[in-house]
Write a structure and sequence with these properties.
Length: 168
């Protein structure tokens, strides 16, 4: 996010910029998830990723709702951070052959994505409140809760996988 862009003068400009950034990120995640779902072996991981794929599509719609509430058109701004996280995920996934190790790599990649989103939504919610837009904050809060739950599910799948592997 080009924080020092001259177009950003007010807190509202900054909020809208970050909204476009996460809108771009969510759209990239919608594109990235099917490949991960396809490659996952663990059935809980597959189910969890599939569930989050549906949630993510709804999160895109929620962001469009927030744009509308802010009287703005839904626009994206390039987000090199999420591009980098997804690129790295694809590289690692492409390199791993063992299916258990591949699952572990994908869980790690998915958690990096979730943590990025959690950071972004946390900030957006704080800024929305600062701008007196509790209505927007509450919609963004629904997404934040989903991202946190997705992260927790990934941890549970990872721990179950480690336990099974350790027992084998
Ligand atoms: Fe998301």
């Amino acid at each position: 996010m080009a924080l020092f862009s001259k177009d950003i003068r007010t807190m509202e400009d900054l909020f809208m910029h970050q909204l476009r950034d996460i809108y771009y990120a969510e759209k990239q995640i919608v594109k990235a998830l099917p490949k991960m779902i396809d490659k996952a072996s663990d059935s809980d991981l597959k189910t969890g990723l599939r569930h989050h794929f549906d949630e993510t599509k709804n999160q895109v719609t929620r962001l469009e709702q927030v744009f509308e509430m802010m009287d703005g058109r839904a626009k994206t701004v390039d987000c090199p951070a999420i591009d980098g996280i997804i690129k790295e995920a694809n590289e690692v996934i492409g390199d791993v052959e063992d299916k258990d190790v591949l699952d572990a790599a994908m869980i790690a990649a998915a958690q990096a994505i979730e943590h990025y989103e959690i950071a972004r939504y946390g900030t957006l919610i704080a800024w929305a409140k600062e701008l007196g837009r509790d209505d927007c904050a509450s919609i963004l809060g629904q997404t934040l809760a989903e991202e946190k739950a997705a992260d927790k599910t990934l941890t549970q799948v990872a721990e179950a996988r480690v336990n099974v592997t350790a027992a084998a």
